């Protein structure tokens, strides 16, 4: 966007953010307009991923910013006003050049690296392949060394058995994991188009691990087993997805929006039946993302029915799913899709 202005030191690289684990640093020129554009992008990311910021742990750091604009920004976002300099992962952040004192702790930290400590305390100059831990070593260190001994079996002489004779972490992991059963529905559950929280609930549902009343009755937690949404049948995974009148009605509304049809839907095969004759990778992913969102919403409705005695209308549920899926669709590149597939996706975006 032309209206957005990069931070002076980040303009050359067009850098506006850095991520580390669950931390996010945003950089922009200190004006209100750039800040709001940055926050708008952050909100779009939150809507698409389901991840949100914690205002109580977020701070705004500024230098040479108009005081009133900074106060307005803090009031709008709910973030606190931070003070420079501050430290992140032991590294000082300041508006001025770092002094020798600022860098002293970093230099000292380099002398206390875990690798050097391990070599000094445990290995004492012995090569890793020849090293064997002593009995008095800590249990975690002996555990690490036991993994090393297992990996030795993957070598033939000095060459790794797979991957062209060169060991990599990826090849070592595959070798230790061994042959595993192929789960055909894993592709649609863990699709990169799905919202993560949707994928997790789908995974639990397909693996029959969701805590339905049927399961809770078996462990003695409850005695009532009827579905809280419809009150007609026993609450099982099969009933919730999609034998229940409510979930079946939601599915029909979404299928009408997608222009698809299906008979006798069930949670394990619904994705396969819907994508069987669909051309275009993104089209298939969009359909499965919609089903994942529906499964998540049904679980959410079920929980609210249990705790609040309220059941949302199917049309409202489907409206929420459409909005979420449209946001995800907007972030995808559909130019490589075929003409028919691309037209279908574009039509979904403008259809309610």
Description of the structure:
The chain has 352 residues and is mainly α. It folds into three domains: 11-97, no CATH class; 113-177, no CATH class; 185-350, no CATH class. 51% of the residues lie in helices and 6% in strands. The protein contains 15 helices and eight strands. The protein has helices at residues 32-49, 67-77, 100-110, 114-123, 139-152, 169-177, 186-189, 196-206, 213-218, 237-243, 245-258, 270-275, 281-308, 314-330, 339-350, and strands at residues 17-20, 23-26, 59-60, 80-81, 86-88, 91-93, 155-156, 159-160. A two-stranded antiparallel ribbon has the order 1-2. Helix 1 (32-49) packs across helix 14 and helix 11 packs across helix 14 (314-330). It is globular and about 70 Å long. It starts with 16 loop residues before the first strand and ends with a helix. The mean pLDDT is 84.
Domain module tally: 3
- Strand residue content: 5-15%
Average pLDDT, all residues: 84
How would you write the strand order of the largest sheet?
Answer: 1-2
SSE string, helices as H and strands as E = EEHEHEEEHHHEEHHHHHHHHHH
Task: Indicate the radius of gyration in whole angstroms.
Answer: 27 Å
Major sheet summary line: 2 strands, antiparallel
Q: What helical percentage do the residues reach?
A: 40-55%
- Helix/strand/pairing category: mainly alpha
Number of H/I helices: 15
Instruction: Work out the number of β strands.
Output: 8
Shape: globular
Distance between the termini: 29 Å
Low-confidence stretches: none
Domain Reverse transcriptase: 1-93
InterPro entries: RT_dom, RVT-Znf
């Amino acid at each position: 966007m032309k209206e957005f202005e990069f931070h002076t030191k980040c303009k050359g690289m067009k850098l506006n953010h850095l991520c580390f684990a669950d931390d996010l640093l945003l950089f922009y020129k200190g004006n209100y307009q750039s800040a709001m554009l940055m926050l708008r992008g952050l909100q779009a990311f939150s809507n698409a991923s389901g991840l949100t910021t914690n205002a109580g742990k977020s701070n705004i750091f500024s230098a040479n910013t108009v005081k009133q604009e900074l106060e307005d920004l803090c009031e709008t976002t709910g973030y606190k006003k931070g003070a420079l300099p501050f430290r992140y992962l032991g590294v000082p952040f300041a508006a001025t050049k770092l002094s020798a004192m600022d860098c002293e702790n970093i230099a000292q930290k380099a002398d206390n690296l875990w690798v050097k400590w391990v070599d000094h305390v445990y290995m004492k100059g012995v090569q890793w392949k020849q090293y064997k831990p002593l009995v008095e070593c800590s249990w975690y260190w002996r555990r690490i060394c036991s993994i090393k001994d297992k990996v030795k079996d993957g070598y033939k002489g000095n060459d790794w058995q797979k991957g062209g004779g060169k060991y990599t972490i990826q090849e070592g992991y595959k070798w230790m994991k061994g042959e595993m059963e192929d789960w055909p529905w894993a592709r649609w559950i863990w699709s990169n188009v799905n919202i993560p929280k949707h994928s997790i609930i789908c995974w639990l549902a397909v693996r029959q691990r969701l805590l339905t009343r049927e399961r809770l009755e078996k462990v003695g937690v409850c005695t009532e087993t009827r579905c809280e949404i419809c009150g007609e049948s026993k609450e099982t995974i099969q009933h919730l997805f999609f034998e229940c009148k409510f979930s079946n009605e939601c599915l029909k509304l979404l299928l009408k929006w997608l222009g698809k049809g299906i008979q006798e839907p069930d949670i394990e095969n619904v994705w396969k039946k819907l994508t069987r004759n669909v051309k275009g990778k993104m089209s298939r992913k969009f359909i499965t993302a919609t089903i994942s969102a529906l499964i998540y919403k049904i679980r959410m409705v079920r929980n609210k029915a249990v705790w609040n005695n309220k059941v949302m209308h199917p049309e409202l549920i489907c409206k929420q799913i459409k909005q979420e899926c449209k946001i995800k669709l907007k972030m995808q590149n559909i130019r490589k899709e075929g003409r028919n597939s691309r037209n279908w996706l574009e039509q979904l975006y403008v259809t309610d």
